[in-house]
């Protein structure tokens, strides 16, 4: 059997396989679980913003471009110098967590391309940090209103990032460190210590006042009870109680001497035989 007649087909198959292997990176692509993509059709309608491609294995024309986005939670850490309400320079380190809206990555690509973190997220975070911290003093940022400052920055940044055309979801914002001039920091810490000592003193004072009030009320109650008892102890009642006690004692098996009318107010005297 002459195999030479199959030679052209083998050559064509080999060339085709070589072309496919060479173009495989342009023909096939795979998206991971946290990845989404949009396609730019060079000879079609351009960027297809509405059709977001999900995870898995996909095929495309070699002349089309695929833009892949990581839609998992991202984190950026930034350090910056800001001015407080009084114009004092404060150095802060902040951390922000965010994610692009998976269904809107086409619009993000159209506006910011894949560099949306540097073009959108970081500038807006820095702007919000400066604006919010400019409404507080260094002491408030450093100690008394730190959580309030964090919340205000998060809310204002989230509103901007999620606005139409931006399409980024703000997850969290955290002030990691606040660095003040050593003299200012020491003054704030001394003031906080004095405030804590004053609160502790006031607590002890309030406790002592409460205890004094409790004792006063108890004494008044005891005095009122004694007054009631004393007012009820008439001579007639005492005589009657004495007679009742004499009768009860007379029933005792122990020997004793009872002198009737020998006591004060005519009450019986009870003498032990010893």
From TrEMBL:
Its main location: membrane. The keyword Zinc-finger does not apply. Keywords: Membrane, Transmembrane, Transmembrane helix. Residues 26-192 form the Band domain. The chain crosses the membrane at residues 6-32. It comes from the Bacteria. It is a single-pass membrane protein. It is found in: Membrane. InterPro entries: Band_7, Band_7/SPFH_dom_sf, Prohibitin. PANTHER family: PROHIBITIN, PROHIBITIN-2. This is Prohibitin family protein. It comes from Reichenbachiella carrageenanivorans. The lineage of its organism: Bacteria, Pseudomonadati, Bacteroidota, Cytophagia, Cytophagales.
